[in-house]
Every structure is written in C-alpha cells, then in structure tokens.
Amino acid sequence: MTAAGLRAGLIGLGSMGRHHARVLAGLDGVQLVGVVDPMGDKNGWAQGAPVLSTVEELISLGIDYAVVACPTALHEEVGLKLADAGVHALIEKPVADTVEGARRLVEAFEARGLVAGVGHIERCNPALRSLRSRLEAGELGDVYQVVTRRQGPFPHRIADVGVVKDLATHDIDLTGWVTGQEYRSIAAHTVSKSGRPHEDMVSAVGQLSDGTMVNHLVNWLSPLKERFTSVTGEKGCFIADTLTADLTFYSNAAVATEWEALRAFRGVSEGDMIRYAIPKREPLLVEHELFRDAVLGESHDICTLRQGLRTVEVAAAVLESASRGTTVTLPAQDRTDHVA
C-alpha cells in the first residue's frame, strides 16, 4: 500500500468488468492502476487505466488487490496466479466452475493469509441487508420457509454455464446468508429449451440445517424479469424485491376465536403491512467498499472464498439431483471459516 492508498487491478472488461472499472476508478482510498483484457478496450471502459494483455503484467505493476471479472472458467487459473503473487482478490461469482477448482482457490488464498472474497452482489442489496438485520434481531421469530424467484430473458453475456451456476448461485448464497443456516438437502428438476447445451430453468426444493424449507425457481426463459425473496416465519412474512430494493413486512394478527373446535389450531390471519424506507446505495459500490475495508483489516463483512465454495457445492448438488432424479444430502460445512 502506498501513501495514495491501495493499488488495485481489474481482470476482465466485459459486462460486469466495465462496472467494476467504473466503481474502482472513483473508490476512495483506491487507485486503479491497470486492467487486463486480451481484447483491449475498444469501448473506453477502462477509465483511463492502462490496458494490459496478461495477469503477469498486472502483477508486475505492484498491486495490493485485484478484481477478477473474466469468464467463470478462467477464475481458478487467474486466482491461483494472484495468490502465488501474494495479491488479495475479489472474484466474481461463482468463485469457480467446479467444486474442485473452488476448493483449490480456498486453499491457495488461506495458506498465504490473503483476503479473498466472492462477488455475491445480492449481499449488498439494501433490501436483503435490511432483511438480514431484522431476522438477526428476531423480528420474524422462528423462520419456517425461504422462497425465491429469479427469472427473465436470456442474458447474452453468458456462454460457459447454465442457469444454475449463473443465476441460482445468487439465491443459494443469499438464502444461507440471510438465515445464517446452511443447506442440508436439495431436490431439483431442470429443463433446456433454448437449444444450448446447458439448462435454462430449474426448480429446487431443499432444507436448511435448522429445518427451514427452501424453494427456488430460476430461469432465463421468461419475458417477465423478477427478483423475489420471501421469508415466512412465526410472526409473519418478509418480501424483498431486489430489482427495486424494496422490503415489505406482512405481520400476523392475533384474532381470538370462541369456536371450541378451532381453539387448538394455531393458524394466522392478516395483520398490518409495513413497507420500509431504506437508504438505497448502489450494491456494487457497497461491495467494493466492504472489500477495500477487509483488505485494510477494518471489516470482515464480505463473502469469503469458503462461503463461495459452499455455494458451488450446493449448485453442484442441484445439478446432480436433477440428473439422477434423487434428493441429494450435503455434508456439514467445514467450520474453518469464521468470517461473517
């Protein structure tokens, strides 16, 4: 680190990389010193930083950390080079395209004591951050079920993975993160309708470590774009819309009954609805601020590589379940990682 702040690099200037470049170029305490993209920068997205051809050239500039936004299939190769050079890294999700690759990245960065995170951007969405803090405060009581729907048209930026690794990983990570639980089992069905080799739609049902039910419906075959998360529990239901960053709470109302036959039934009735006013900062900026602070040792509020590995493991279990037509049980998570 220099007197001017942290020296950062970026690898990849694609659909996500250009946004990372924009945020890095204006991030307090950080200097964007170089960008790697073999295709160059014909669109001017590098924000004036030198555009390089290789990761080695970027490392030679003397960087403190790098953001990895190249295609998923290259994450492992690039990440291992950064780890070998002692460079901290923020790697776009999913952390790798295989469980084995994700595990090798975890081991490489942990062995060197480096800060490494995964860009699970939904953790920085204002609605989900508010939801998580409210669940931690016990505002919902016992949690019974988490339901997510993530659908929309096919994203042409994607060529190397299917909808499970590209989109469902968002829902897998956010579900574990907001509840503080881990997946114990998953059962899924997939279909492929677009003529591509990968799946376009997935429906999954699972159970978390505390017994909470989860349901995920994810596709890129719908003209309707939807980003929906609901958490139902003892005191009501939270609904988060991460497209608009809105959070709404539907509370249970206690209604006494005189009917003897119904007294033993613990049902619910509709109560008040609250739509929360939430400060709505750009999630990608929040993600970068949190990672910068983690590199500086001032915060641990990032998605760690080990947490990213778990998400890849669950995604692999989703695909295994769909392929075999069975429910897949996941082993308990390695608790080596205590970073929240």
What does this entry look like structurally?
- Strands 14-13-12-11-7-10-9-8-15 form a nine-stranded mixed beta sheet. It has a six-stranded parallel beta sheet with strand order 3-2-1-4-5-6, with helices on both faces.
- The longest helix is centred in the C-terminal third of the chain and has 20 residues, at 305-324.
- It starts with 5 loop residues before the first strand and ends in an 11-residue tail after the last strand.
- The protein contains eight helices and 15 strands.
- Helix 4 (99-111) runs antiparallel to helix 8 (305-324).
- Helices cover 29% and strands 27% of the residues.
Short description:
This protein is an alpha/beta fold and 340 residues long.
In terms of topology, how is this protein built?
Layout: E1 6-11, H1 17-25, E2 30-36, E3 51-52, H2 55-60, E4 65-68, H3 75-84, E5 88-92, H4 99-111, E6 116-119, H5 126-136, E7 143-151, H6 163-179, E8 183-191, E9 201-208, E10 213-219, E11 226-233, E12 236-241, E13 246-253, E14 269-275, H7 283-295, H8 305-324, E15 328-329
Parallel strand pairs: 1-2, 1-4, 2-3, 4-5, 5-6, 7-10
Antiparallel strand pairs: 7-11, 8-9, 8-15, 9-10, 11-12, 12-13, 13-14
Index terms:
340 residues, alpha/beta, 9-stranded mixed beta sheet, 6-stranded parallel beta sheet, 29% helix, globular
Q: Biggest sheet, in brief? A: 9 strands, mixed
* Overall geometric form: globular
The residue ranges in which pLDDT falls below 50 over 5 or more consecutive positions are none
Helix content: 25-40%
Oligomer: single chain
The ordered H/E elements are EHEEHEHEHEHEHEEEEEEEHHE
* Contiguous helical run count: 8
Number of strands: 15
Determine the N-to-C terminus distance.
Answer: 25 Å
Spatial order of strands in the largest sheet = 14-13-12-11-7-10-9-8-15
Calculate the mean pLDDT score and round it.
92
Radius of gyration: 21 Å
Strand percent estimate: 25-35%
Pairing-aware structural class of the strands and helices?
alpha/beta
